[in-house]
């Protein structure tokens, strides 16, 4: 009977430790998540782009976790290619390809984000926006 009581006590302590750790992590990262969710993506006029290759970057938010840099190619007044150059997160090529293909297909930054990676998607779109700001006809 005493052994079962010790095991139960260890399980309870372990559960409390895990719950406390997860709660602390959520509190620690709440500012970063809030900032990412509210990151504005401008409605860039894709009909007013100069041809060329432009580099855009986003500093990555409060903790710089989502810092990234892209190269955007504009040809015949349309975005024809977007390549990731640098990123801190270990995103798969499929992630960036899917997101950037949505931008190229719609010729807009107002695209659906990748499910389960909304904040990261917005960070990557922000760097594309920053590149396209340089491509705007003045």
TrEMBL record:
Q: Which InterPro entries match?
A: FMN-bd
Any stretches that span the bilayer, and where are they? none
One Gene Ontology cellular component annotation held by this UniProt entry = membrane
One Gene Ontology molecular-function label: FMN binding
Domain FMN-binding, first and last residues per copy: 63-135
Species name: Bacillus canaveralius
Under which name does UniProt file this protein? FMN-binding domain-containing protein
């Amino acid at each position: 009977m005493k052994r079962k009581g010790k095991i139960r006590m260890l399980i309870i302590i372990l559960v409390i430790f895990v719950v406390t750790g997860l709660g602390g992590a959520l509190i620690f990262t709440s500012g970063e998540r809030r900032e990412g969710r509210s990151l504005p993506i401008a409605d860039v006029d894709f009909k007013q782009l100069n041809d060329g290759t432009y580099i855009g970057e986003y500093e990555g938010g409060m903790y710089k976790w989502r810092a990234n840099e892209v190269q955007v190619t504009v040809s015949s007044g349309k975005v024809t290619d977007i390549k990731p150059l640098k990123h801190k997160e270990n995103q798969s090529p499929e992630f960036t390809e899917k997101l950037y293909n949505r931008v190229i297909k719609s010729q807009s930054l107002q695209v659906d984000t990748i499910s389960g990676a909304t904040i990261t998607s917005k960070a990557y779109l922000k760097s594309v926006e920053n590149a396209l700001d340089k491509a705007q006809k003045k």
